[in-house]
Amino acid sequence: xxxxxxxxxxxxxxxxxxxxxxxxxxxxxxxxxxxxxxxxxxxxxxxxxxxxxxxxxxxxxxxxxxxxxxxxxxxxxxxxxxxxxxxxxxxxxxxxxxxxxxxxxxxxxxxxxxxxxxxxxxxxxxxxxxxxxxxxxxxxxxxxxxxxxxxxxxxxxxxxxxxxxxxxxxxxxxxxxxxxxxxxxxxxxxxxxxxxxxxxxxxxxxxxxxxxxxxxxxxxxxxxxxxxxxxxxxxxxxxxxxxxxxxxxxxxxxxxxxxxxxxxxxxxxxxxxxxxxxxxxxxxxxxxxxxxxxxxxxxxxxxxxxxxxxxxxxxxxxxxxxxxxxxxxxxxxxxx
Length: 336
Fold this sequence. Notes:
- This protein has helices at about 5-10, 20-30, 155-180, 310; strands at about 55-60, 70, 115, 135, 180-185, 200-205, 215-220, 230-240, 245, 250-255, 255, 285-290, 295-300, 315, 320-330, 335.
- The chain is α+β, with helices and mostly antiparallel strands.
- β9 (about 245) and β10 form a beta hairpin.
- It starts with a helix and ends with a strand.
């Protein structure tokens, strides 16, 4: 060991400074090197130990002793009593080129506020424009430019009641043309059942689903050659195929007398003219064989009624419907 100073000086290059050799020599002289017998015996592990990481050395300005050497940049050791806190990883930063394009500012995106169109252009494709936009709440006294104009009274009435009126008109037309129809009585031929000026309702579907019966009051189209231009209303007395005979101011059907409590005057049915359109060889004033598809009709006021005794039997397909109720006057409303 006495020659260590020579070996150190010989091992280093001639270019190294002499103060390094002096420092090393001084450190070697101060260390008491133990003898080989007193050295502790070390156990060599099969797995080579990881060599310790040595921090780089920064040389001191003074070279008098090793105590002046400073160790820097060494990692700080956390004391055992200090808890270790993991630092969350930062989210990757999206490059500016991958950022989504700025959306154009439109009035639809402002919610309950109104868009001030005068300054709307300041926010188009310009993020800084948000600071310059002008907003106006709809609850302010000043109405927004895009606010809906107040609906007029007529428009509101039309919107609310228009569908109801349309439905009512449609139902009325359907009822008038298909189901029922009101008729005005223009004469006194049906007294006492109906007075002049009364109004009745006629069921237009009665004979599409049923047969005509004796004693029913019907409305039918005006026969050719008769005066007036409106439909007529009479009572059915004879049915198709029957023989009607007028004798002693009474009515006989196939030889049997017909009871007619609805007449204004009993025993008042008298022949008038030769009855046309009968299904018989010899036309007569007092009798008629009713053809198939026809009916014989007369008014209840037999002394003042122009009926089948004048224009003959009427075809069933000319019958509009059955009059089943009187609706006017109100104090005499009822079924017929």
